[in-house]
Design goal:
- The protein is α/β, with parallel strands linked by helices.
- About 30% of the residues lie in helices and about 25% in strands.
- Strands 1, 2, 7, 8, 9, 10, 11, 17 and 18 form a nine-stranded mixed beta sheet that branches.
- The chain is globular, with a radius of gyration of 27 Å.
Length: about 700
């Protein structure tokens, strides 16, 4: 829900140091303010956020149709919080996803109908209590998310144009709110005034070109980003970690069996005939994706025909399926890399999502990090294009998001290694398999004919999988007993592949950028990743996401009290800063200063007065707030803390949660991150001068 619907009228104005007309308001000259390349979740989310902020944009997508391959499927807490601001998107996901009991576990087995080696439940009681976040994680296939995002864009008057081209697009300039399918960015050239983009498309059997001019070009075009390559931006990290084939198939027979007998999200299957990971995207619909490695040049994607894939699936299932339907087969390569920079060409070419970072899928950080890239970038693009801030504010996107991607890369690598600990405990060391492959490909085996190389590789892998025979892998066999005991310890100690990382999901923090760091916040910096699940610890430190707390909203034009998350107090429809204070005289003086300075800087601001939970009456509140403390300003809201039943025995006030006193104050950015705080004793000196310093630092003025 949006608080602003109840809190009067707030204006979004622009800083006067720029041109009189803002880039977002003008496209008559044919220059589009923002062109987004890539219509995946990141590009679509960014287009929604920009449109809601009043920035005109359009999208190019090289594919002719939207993929039905499930791909990413885990949506973490922070992404779901972003989706709460997108007109009911989070609620739609929650309503449409499978029940949590059908996907909370990872199951390790010899086959889907065979012995279970162990299971790990990745949902803990606190994950449902909404203490640290107003919403839980979700399991929802990427193509379904894409469909919901397109529905949102339709509601914002976006139009999807088919790849063959339409008459209205044949001539003239690209208008805003268009998604052009089958259009591939093939070149770009920067001039003093704009970026000239050439897009290639097929019409009537011939490739044609369309020229598009834009102020800002955002490359959200995936791991093989054309925009990144054309901009000459290199990737740094570990490439080509593993090659895999992703097999998308349907079987309601299998879905019905697993739903009733052993529901889970991921199934790690190890037997003498095959090894693979099965992702249960939807047990009710019987929709699955099987991931299995392959080793070129001895093996190639062409080896995985529909018939071969069916046989592989049957080996891992443990029996044949009468209704199996292999939909799609896609090879892909696992990388762990981050772009050397996110912003290029004088802040006019920007990377987001997989174009900027490529992670192992362990932990599901790829799409989620990309969505949070878009959330960070949108308000900064809007601030620049509306004349509120100079183009240098876009550099803070690189300063803030790139370190997060580097951190998440390391975390994903650690989680991937944790996944490899399970086969290693069973006698299948993945490093040995890779070493054998390298020896055959580049070592002494390279002198053998290719057919013989493949036979040798297959033979060695068959010998390796013999470690998984029932004769060896049982409690009566001394070796098998030791291996199974080691496997149990891995599960019990949380050393296997993890699904949730609350500390990293909600606790990631920007150390420099569009914020004012303070000396008290160094101790709150997130520790290096461990690969284990760690609890999120709220903080009010600059750069952190605003902590969640349920509050009771008190407004004079409401007959009843509304309950909100503190995150709901931050607008999703305008560039607006939120100042949170306690109902104290000095804090009201600071609020006056903040609102006055915000007017000077032509940026919208709102004050939230946080009343303690023992405030019982509206009259008590109106004496201090509505009774004159913030007159003549109307851009404020009074809220009262709500103690949650699950934490009452260790109840903390808002200021305790933020590790501050009520003499402090918190200034929140439009992306829910804390830009500045007066931590303990409030402001020393002139609050006007301090607020001028703060807004100048945040906006880069």
């Amino acid at each position: 829900m949006e608080v602003l619907g109840f809190v009067g009228i707030f204006r979004t104005m622009r800083y006067q140091y720029t041109q009189k007309r803002t880039f977002s308001e003008v496209s008559r000259n044919g220059v589009l303010p923002v062109l987004i390349v890539g219509a995946g979740p990141v590009g679509l989310v960014l287009s929604i956020l920009l449109t809601k902020l009043g920035v005109k944009c359009a999208v190019l997508e090289k594919s002719k149709t939207f993929s039905k391959h499930p791909q990413a499927h885990f949506i973490n807490n922070r992404s779901m919080e972003v989706f709460r601001k997108l007109d009911g998107l989070a609620e739609e996901i929650q309503k449409s996803q499978p029940p949590v009991d059908l996907w909370r576990k990872f199951i390790y087995c010899t086959s889907l109908f065979g012995s279970v080696l162990g299971s790990v439940d990745h949902m803990q009681p606190q994950d449902f209590e909404q203490v640290v976040s107003p919403i839980s994680v979700a399991h929802f296939s990427q193509y379904k998310l894409t469909a919901l995002l397109l529905k949102q864009l339709e509601n914002l008057s976006f139009h999807v144009h088919k790849w063959e081209g339409e008459e209205g697009l044949n001539h003239g300039h690209l208008r805003e709110r268009q998604i052009l399918m089958g259009h591939e960015c093939v070149s770009m050239d920067a001039t003093d005034n704009c970026i000239n983009v050439t897009a290639s498309f097929l019409k009537e059997g011939k490739y044609r070109e369309r020229n598009i001019q834009c102020r800002i070009l955002v490359g959200a075009d995936g791991a093989g980003s054309t925009v990144r390559k054309l901009a000459g931006i290199t990737m740094k990290g570990e490439e080509d970690m593993q090659k895999l084939v992703s097999i998308h198939f349907l079987s309601k027979e299998l879905g019905h069996y697993l739903l009733n007998e052993r529901p889970g999200m991921l199934f790690f299957i190890f037997n003498t005939e095959a090894i693979g990971v099965l992702i249960a995207h939807d047990l009710n619909q019987g929709e699955f994706v099987l991931q299995t490695p392959f080793y070129p040049p001895q093996q190639s994607p062409q080896d995985f025909s529909h018939e071969v894939c069916e046989k592989l699936i049957f080996k891992l299932v443990g029996r044949e399926l009468l209704d199996i339907d292999v939909i799609d087969i896609k090879p892909w390569v696992m990388h762990a890399e981050v772009a050397e920079k996110y912003v290029a060409c004088d802040h006019r070419i920007i990377l987001a999502g997989d174009a900027a970072h490529r992670f192992p899928p362990a932990g599901g950080f790829g799409m989620n990090t990309g969505i949070q890239d878009a959330h960070n970038l949108a308000w900064k693009l809007a601030s620049f294009l509306k004349g509120i801030a100079p183009s240098s504010i876009l550099h803070t996107y690189d300063e803030e998001r790139r370190p997060i991607a580097i951190f998440n890369t390391e975390l994903s690598i650690q989680n991937f290694r944790a996944a490899m600990a399970v086969p290693a405990a069973l006698g299948l060391n993945p490093t040995v398999a890779n070493s054998v492959h390298q020896a055959i490909t580049n070592g002494i085996g390279s002198i053998l004919p290719s057919g013989l190389q493949r036979a040798v590789l297959d033979g060695i892998f068959t010998i390796g999988r013999a470690q998984l025979s029932e004769y060896l892998l049982n409690e009566k066999n001394p070796i098998g007993s030791l291996r199974l005991a080691k496997l149990r310890r891995i599960f019990e100690e949380g050393k296997s592949l993890q699904l949730q990382f609350p500390a990293e999901d909600l606790g990631f923090r920007y150390l420099k950028g569009a914020l004012v760091p303070d000396s008290d916040s160094a101790q709150d910096a997130l520790e290096a990743p461990t690969g284990r699940r760690r609890d999120y610890i709220p903080t009010g430190a600059p750069g952190s996401r605003l902590p969640h707390m349920n509050v009771r909203l008190r407004l004079s034009n409401l007959t009843s009290e509304e309950i909100w998350s503190t995150l709901d107090l931050v607008s999703g429809d305008k560039i607006e800063f939120l100042l949170i204070i306690a109902p104290l005289k000095e804090s009201y003086q600071l609020a006056h200063a903040a609102l006055k300075v915000a007017d000077e800087f032509k940026v919208s601001a709102k004050v939230c007065v946080m009343w303690p939970s023992n405030t019982h009456t509206g009259a008590e509140m109106s004496c201090a707030a509505a009774g004159g403390a913030l007159i003549p300003y109307e851009s404020y809201v009074d809220v009262v803390e709500i103690e949650m039943e699950v934490v009452k025995k260790s109840s903390k006030s808002w200021w305790d949660i933020c590790k501050m006193t009520d003499k402090g104050a918190i200034l929140v950015r439009p992306d829910d991150h804390i830009a500045w705080r007066a931590a303990k004793t409030g402001i020393v000196g002139d609050p006007i001068l301090e607020m001028q310093r703060v807004f100048s630092a945040i906006l880069g003025l």
